[in-house]
Amino acid sequence: MTGAAQVAGEVAGEVAPGDALMSTIGLPLLVLVLFYFLLILPQQRRFKQHNSMLEGLKKGDKVVTGGGLVGKIDKVIDEKEVVVDLGNGLKVTALRSTIQGMADAALPANDTKAETAAKKKS
Questions:
Q1: pTM above 0.85, yes or no
Q2: What is the distance between the alpha carbons of residues 84 and 93, in angstroms, rounded to a whole number?
Q3: Which of 65, 75, 88, 93 is the most exposed place for a label (fewest CB within 10 A)?
Q4: CATH top class, domain 58-107
């Protein structure tokens, strides 16, 4: 028994007190750094890009609203509201914050309707 206790004491004596603290703090710190670079930083970039797109809205831009409505900007009322023309004479006032993006960028890659419409125009 004394041999096992002596070996355990030697092993415990080899670990410096600072190493235990670094291993305890190191892993959560590494997780936080990864969390920042993988989740928080990209979200901040998307937020800035979306805000710059909203600030640059002008008459004639084709947009998609949060509800999925696709239309063209008919009039910019102020920094918070725009009038969106949905077609057939239907115009709605929408908050800029509800605009999700530009309609051309929002179309799926396999959307054949847009391709056939483009072919008919030419």
A1: no
A2: 6
A3: 88
A4: mainly beta
Q: Which residues contact 75 (CB under 8 A, 6 or more apart)?
A: 59, 82, 83
For tokens 């309707």, what's the residue?
Answer: 113
For the stretch 8-53, pLDDT in tens is 555 555 656 667 777 788 889 999 999 999 999 999 999 999 999 9
Q: How far apart are CA 6 and CA 115, in angstroms?
A: 79
Q: Any idea what DSSP says for residue 47?
A: H
* Residue 71 and residue 86 in contact, taking contact as beta carbons nearer than 8 Å: yes
pLDDT of residue 35: 95
Cα–Cα distance measured from residue 83 to residue 75, given in angstroms and rounded to the nearest whole number: 5
Q: What pairing do the DSSP bridges indicate for beta strands 90-95 and 81-87?
A: antiparallel
Contact status, residue 73 vs residue 61, Cβ threshold 8 Å = yes
What's the confidence (pLDDT) of residue 120?
67
**92: pLDDT confidence band, cut at 50, 70 and 90?**
very high
